[in-house]
Give the backbone structure.
Amino acid sequence: MIPFWYIVIAILWTGFFVLEGFDFGVGMLHAVIGTDEAGRRAAINTIGPLWDGNEVWLIVAAAAMFAAFPGWYATMFSAYNLVLVLLLASLIVRGVAFEYRGKRDAARWRRTWDVLLTVGSLLAPLLFGVALAGLLHGLPINSAQNFTGSFWDLFQPYALFTGVTLVLICLLHGATFLCLKTTDAMRERSWQVARRVAPVTGAAVIAFIIWTHVTAGTTFFLNVIELLAVLAVIAAVMLVYAHREGFAFAATAVTIASCILALFVDLYPNVMVSSTSKAYNLTVHNTASPGYSLKVMTVVVIILLPVVLAYQTWTYYVFRRRVSKQEFQPSTPSSAPSPEAAPGAEPTPRPAAPSSRPGS
Amino acid sequence: MTNVDLARVEFAFVTINHFFFVPITIGLGFLTALLQTVWYRTKRDEYLRLTRFFGTLLVINVAIGVVTGIVQEFQFGMNWGAYSRLVGNIFGAPLAMEGLAAFFLESTFLGLWLFGWDKLPRRTHLATIWLVFAGSVLSGAFIMAANSWMQHPVGYVMVNGKPQLNDIWALFTNPVFVWGYSKVVFVALTTGSVIMLAVSAWQLRHGGDREVFTRSARLALIVLVPAILFTLLVGDELGVIEGKYQPMKIAAAEAQWTTCQPCSFSLFQIGGGNNDQTPTQIIEIPHLLSLLATNHWNGKVVGLNPLQSQYASQYGPGNYVPNVFIQYWSMRAMAYLGALVLLISVWGLWLLRRKKLATSRVFLWVAVWAAVLPFVMNTAGWLLTESGRQPWIVQGIMLTKNGISPTLSTTWLWISLITFVLLYGVLATVDLLLMLRYSREQLPPPRTEADADAPVAAVLY
């Protein structure tokens, strides 16, 4: 039951990055791919109906750690306290940006949210990378499973590099997603971005896998998942250059999945390495919940996860259509140049405020 | 301030903030779903316009409710590591269930609802808003099961001094959960309908479409009257149950230092607090505390002093009395404001029957400002519940001061506290401004005859 729960948590984190990975990418790229307001809105709306459901994977991953491996959850979240504060701030700002940027028709208002969306989407994967890499790299942890280091202990070179790699993968993943979901000039620009990012991401992923393999220090040869990551990223680069849009996206999805899984595979059976002493390592066994809790949670996850997968898949099917910039152009050229006037915008700005409305 | 104080202030701050948005999400979600159902049934255009209008207000709040919810999920581990380590096998279980069963549902179907107007069949689309509501109301169930376990731990055995879950059903049949959760649902419906009433009232006062906003005001009142009535009734029963399992909480809420039988209830007091055991009680109502705390005319309420000596002999030396000042006044704020909301709602219903709702400018003015009441009431209620549990983090099992992450530095705590205060301050302001702005918008224009059967445009970012 304990290894099963480790697998469940690895899958939840992987699912989170595969799905939210392109949301981060789109968040970072929306102002690059969308050169004007209509384009930026189109880019954001490719993930509009999806990002919120994707982010729940994170919440469930954290809650599953809490329930199944309370010791792991407690030590990791306490150690990364300030990193998580920053991470939460990024996630909060970016989540609100989606919802609020269109709620006022003012260029400065939208620019502000655009910047916050971009920065939040960049910081989030960077900090996730830092936090996940630290589990494998090791942190000062004492015999009572408590973190004893300082803030800067969290930013080892390997951790930072993992963060940067994750940002790059999200960029490529987001770009290939935008290739699939946009039209015309935006689609073309997404390809350009993908082509430019692809070789850098490829190099970073290969370096990351080698560094991870060395850090784990188990065998000489790469294991299956590590190999898969390397092959997937090479395939992704080639498919991007070959202009194969569905396949390129699939390859970036496999890349991000296998990179995250590689971390979890190399970590097992540890969950947090102690740089103080090997004897203080947190493992699946010394942090797990007792059998009854795991049994209850197993029943719950076996029943509910397939249901969740089913309706999330259906959501992707409902919103399978490409999003075109034309949908966001002002409907009539004569009216005010307000993108809010596009079909389906929020309540249309009222034409002229009746004078009977003081103080509004 | 000590580390524990800082961590407590931070927890209270982010949680109170989060709970500004939660009841709006649940309550307004229900009302929006109701409006859309009426539109689905009658095909009358004004209900579609109201659905879109209040749906926008709903979404503005859901956005913040969702993102501040992530903080809730993380902060147990971030600041309360020792607590998480000790009780994660019990407390974590309902949290994980919440994510799987409720958050996925709420978030995924919210996307489908907003963006699916023109993509889904009308019936399916109606189902999505009900599923959003189901998700939000379900998430409340799981988090309340977890919270109730902290108030009254059940379904566990102690193994080597550590609690281990041995009966998951006990968490969901815990009387504190059953009554506490019911109360949260009614509170949420109260909050949502007060907001809808306030917005409708503002519109009616300021030249909004009279016919349409009278309809929404009526719907809000029809939900509000039973919701606030049940909030008060369930709250009363919850008080009796908490009096049984957490006698300190109830004794402190009345600043009752000595045991009494029968016990009177003071409307106000001058002085009081933990260092003043003989405050001046103003207007004492005989037997009322006995009734509130025990449901019996002559019920006995054990005082704080006898409870303190009992706890000291049971759990070892220490101070087991919660903050009496907070208990006494939060209880009163909650009860009085609840009664006030009830009065306002009955007044509104009376005007509605006499068909004067849209024209009574005094009532409309009161109804607009009533929007503030549920939030003060809800916050007071949570202070009463959570502060009344102190000094325990889990009643009888772990003290709050032992629950904190042991190696967290004071600097870190200050940085995180200040960050959250600034961030939430800005976000709450933006949310409030947007709420005010969109509450004062005109309704979406009516659709022409020709459009009546065409799909409704999606809500896009």
Remarks:
- Chain A is about 70% helix and 0% strand.
